[in-house]
Amino acid sequence: MYLILLLFPILSSSAWALTKEELGERLFSDVRFSRPFYKLASDVNTQDENILKASNSCLSCHQVDAKFNAQTRTGMRLYSDFLPQSQIPYRKLDKQKFTARNTPGLVGIGSPWNQNRFSHWDGEFFDHNETVLGNFTGRNMGWLTHEKDIALKNILTVLKNDNGISDLGEEFGGSYYEAFKSLGLDLLTTSDDVILAKVIDFVSAYMDDLDFEKDENGLYQGSPYDQFLIVNNLPRAPLPNESTMAYSHRLRVALVNLKKPKFVASRFFNTHDKEFGFGQKAFDGMQVFFNASPSGSTSRGSCFFCHNAPLFSDQLFHNIGTTQIEYDQVHGEGSFAKLTIPSLSERQHTYLNQRPNKKNPQAVDLGMWNHFGRTGKEELTTYVKSFLCGRSNPCVTDTILGYTVANFKTPTLRNLNHSDPYFHHGKAKSLKETLKHYVTASELRKQNKLVNGDPRLKNMHLSNQDLENLEAFLMSLNEEYE
Ligand code: HEC
Ligand code: HEC
After folding, report:
1. Sign of the four-CA dihedral 217, 220, 224, 230
2. pLDDT, tens digit, for every residue of 237-287?
3. Does the CB atom of residue 120 touch ligand 2 within 6 A?
4. Cα separation of 432 and 60, whole Å?
5. In whole angstroms, what is the distance from residue 316 CA to residue 153 CA?
6. Closest to 29 in 3D by CA, of 156, 159, 203, 184
7. Whose CA is nearest to atom 5 of ligand 2?
8. 367 lines ligand 2 (CB under 6 A)
9. CB-based burial label for 228 (10 Å; 0-12, 13-18, 19+)
10. Is it the case that residue 41 has pLDDT exceeding 50?
């Protein structure tokens, strides 16, 4: 701090040194990088309420406590919103009003167990930097594909002309000139490319900080589930060089051998207005989740194969039937199976990533299929091949494309009480609905009626009691995220 003040004595009194993460948070929250602001405002420092209201930032969809009501203790979010699909700035050219998919929560993307950085439900982006750039210049902020350069120029204009007189400026280091200067960057003499690279770097750093509550050893501790692991001496995280899958198997064995579990009493969670604990029901649910039910029981969730502990995601892509079931609900049972899906050579510029509707049978969401094998998506293609090649010999892109149909990235299952609705389509309103989905999907898979359905779905056996117990288990993964 002293050093910085000595180096930059010209800083005004309102300025102080920020961290990268803090400046990232400010950029994440500033609505002036959106297309509506660019279009409506003639002065980047305008305080016009209507203009600011019409404009949006990352925070508009990735919300935290913006709508939290301290009295009712409701409205808290996990960097997601409340809608199945989020509102986007209207443009005449495409007339879209909503995002194609449900906004996922962002907490956990900075987790050490977030093993790869492919993001979006369909793996569109290869790392956080690409995601941040794609979002700042993309449709979610109101920009059309051909407007990327205008979007970037607008970022520079806002940064260079900002006078710091705003709530964000007051909270985060004064004007952008002062805020960047406190991190050693002079906005007026640095090249535009370097400034933009730093913007991306700071927002990525901010996102890398988004993780669930950890103790001093970096192990999760915030949920009743984590407390249950602690009091029963169960392994809490992968060992160095152990994969999350190997760890999940190790935890499973420890669970099978746990004869007298100690439970965690329910306690009140302020931001949820609810009590959560880890009792008999959660324990039974955990056994179903990890295929560790006592001998004689047929209950098997097979959940842990994809939802690897401790983050409850394997960072891979799977088809669990969400697309097919959604499509058939609109067009009738068996419709999805009859849909002609383009081969690699036929696909060309076709993207199939829309919510189904009665008028257009081609509106369908094939998830990761959209990006696999495309020019510019080499990292994704190589990564996906590394786990799907086992299904095809020889491993050729054309054949593997068929195995990517309706694949989506496995989301974390932590703190789900703050991120409803669920699934990439956002059509599952409650956990009960997500669990019922698995009963339907595994039934279809057993009858070989699920196009490209994940083989793991075949091994699920879930009674109504199991669903109740699984829900109790998932509830034990909630925590106070603030
Ligand atoms: C209009 C709403 C909206 C805005 C604004 C928005 N996002 Fe998103 N975000 C989404 C949706 C919807 C998805 C899922 C997209 C998909 O999978 O197709 C998403 C996905 C993401 C993901 C991927 C998360 C994961 O685990 O895969 C990241 C990271 C992200 N957004 C960051 C940002 C940043 C940074 C900004 C601001 C520059 C931003 N978003 C602005 C709606 C929004
Ligand atoms: C084959 C891999 C796989 C298995 C097995 C699996 N899941 Fe999932 N799970 C996924 C994927 C992929 C998604 C996202 C799918 C989508 O949105 O289309 C998901 C989504 C979810 C969601 C919604 C989360 C959110 O934020 O939207 C819940 C809840 C869930 N799974 C619970 C379970 C439970 C409980 C089990 C066991 C009964 C289970 N899963 C088994 C892969 C799997």
Report:
1. negative
2. 999 999 999 999 999 999 999 999 999 999 999 999 999 999 999 999 999
3. no
4. 28
5. 35
6. 203
7. 303
8. no
9. buried
10. yes
User: What pLDDT, on the 0 to 100 scale, is given for residue 154?
Assistant: 98
* Residues contacting residue 111 through CB under 8 Å, at least 6 positions apart: 211, 212, 311, 412
- Using the structure block, give the residue that is written with the tokens 């002062």: 178
CB 310 within 8 A of CB 244: yes
Say if CB 154 and CB 441 are below 8 A apart: no
Q: Is the minimum distance from the CB of 252 to ligand 2 under 6 angstroms?
A: no
pLDDT at 137: 97
Whether a cis peptide bond, with omega within 30° of 0, leads into 224 is no
CA separation for the pair 436, 315 (Å, rounded): 23
Q: Considering every ligand atom, which ligand is closest to the CA of 114?
A: 1
Integer Cα distance of 314 and 304 in angstroms: 9
Token couple for 219: 């192990």
Exposed/middle/buried for residue 343 (C-beta within 10 Å: 0-12, 13-18, 19+)? exposed
Ligand 1 close to Cβ of residue 133 (< 6 A): no
End-to-end Cα separation, the chain, in angstroms: 27
Contact 209, 201 (CB under 8 A): no
Q: Which of 163, 170, 205 is nearest to 187 (CA)?
A: 163
Nearest CA-CA partner of 327 in 351, 369, 362: 362
**Is the CB of 456 inside a 6 Å radius of any atom of ligand 2?**
yes
Contact of 229 with 261, CB cutoff 8 Å = no
Is omega for the bond preceding 9 within 30 degrees of 0, making it cis? no
Residue of 135, 199, 210, 423 to test ligand 1 pocket, by largest number of atoms within 8 Å of CB: 135
CB 469 within 8 Å of CB 288: yes
Q: Is the CB of 413 under 6 A from ligand 2?
A: yes
State the amino acid at position 320 in one-letter form. Answer: I
Written as six digits, the tokens of 304 are 């842990």
Report in angstroms the alpha-carbon separations of 249 from 237, 259, 317, 331, 407: 12, 18, 20, 40, 24
Question: What is the chain's length?
Answer: 482
Model pLDDT for residues 343-368, shown as the tens digit of each residue: 999 999 999 999 999 999 999 999 99
